[in-house]
Design a protein that fits this description.
260 residues, mainly alpha, 3-stranded antiparallel beta sheet, 11 helices, 6 strands
Length: 260
């Protein structure tokens, strides 16, 4: 009987110790959360001061604008997201509009509209997959002189600003090149591999995929046919073996990523 009593007492002590650890852990989490909240509040205040001091540079200098946006991202602030309910004056608007007025905010949403226009105008050529650089170059050609310079970073932020609208626009990385996809179609692994090969070599053939990727003919042909159906590859039937070219290479005057 005495042995059983000792066992029960040890069990009770263990349960008490566990409860104390749990309570201590809860107190630590609460303390750390409060400390983090205070730090973020200080960061946001400093960010606001910085934005107001350098507002002119943020509006006119694309590199400065990109760095400011990265500073925001580092502390979990999306400059283009609406901050209604977050203590913003008037209860709405993005961080850009609150800190810098409407000019920068309008710049990104106007740019997003232009991105949509370019993607729509070229969709039959590229199947809804267009390089960020090409989009920037097309938009720059049609802008009036004296307007703010546009960078690839600006284009990417403009595309991300469309996300809350539930749009089908998204950013896709294929190899070392960044694309904007304007169709609600997910690329599978095989299709991504074919596009990356076409990007590097300017074109692919079924036999090239079979040899380099060690794919059976059916797998290589299926991946190519799927991309061909979506106009993401163009076919040259004048060769002994059909060649499947990247539309970006054809429309870009023959400049591929490896300088060929």
């Amino acid at each position: 009987m005495s042995r059983k009593g000792v066992g029960l007492a040890a069990f009770d002590r263990s349960r008490l110790t566990s409860a104390q650890y749990a309570s201590h852990g809860s107190n630590l989490r609460t303390s750390h959360a409060a400390s983090l909240s205070n730090q973020l509040s200080v960061f946001r205040s400093l960010l606001q001061q910085f934005a107001q001091t350098h507002a002119k540079d943020i509006r006119s200098n694309p590199s400065f604008r990109a760095e400011f946006a990265r500073m925001c991202t580092a502390i979990g602030v999306d400059p283009l997201a609406s901050s209604s309910g977050a203590g913003g004056k008037g209860g709405g608007g993005s961080l850009w509009s609150q800190l810098l007025g409407g000019s920068v905010n309008d710049f990104y949403f106007e740019l997003a509209v232009r991105v949509v226009e370019v993607c729509g105008a070229t969709r039959e050529e590229n199947g809804g997959l267009i390089g960020v650089k090409e989009v920037r170059e097309r938009i720059t050609k049609t802008r009036m002189e004296g307007r703010a310079e546009i960078t690839d970073d600006d284009i990417l932020r403009a595309v991300r600003s469309l996300t809350p609208l539930g749009s089908s626009y998204s950013i896709l990385q294929v190899g070392n090149k960044t694309y904007i996809r304007s169709v609600p179609k997910e690329l599978n692994t095989d299709q991504s591999a074919v596009l990356e090969a076409a990007q590097l070599l300017s074109y692919v053939t079924v036999s090239m995929l079979m040899i380099n990727l060690r794919w059976p003919r059916a797998r290589a042909k299926t991946a190519i046919d799927d991309l061909l159906a979506e106009s993401m590859l163009w076919v040259d039937k004048q060769c002994e073996e059909w060649e499947y070219w990247s539309p970006g290479f054809m429309l870009g005057g023959g400049e591929s990523e490896n300088g060929r």
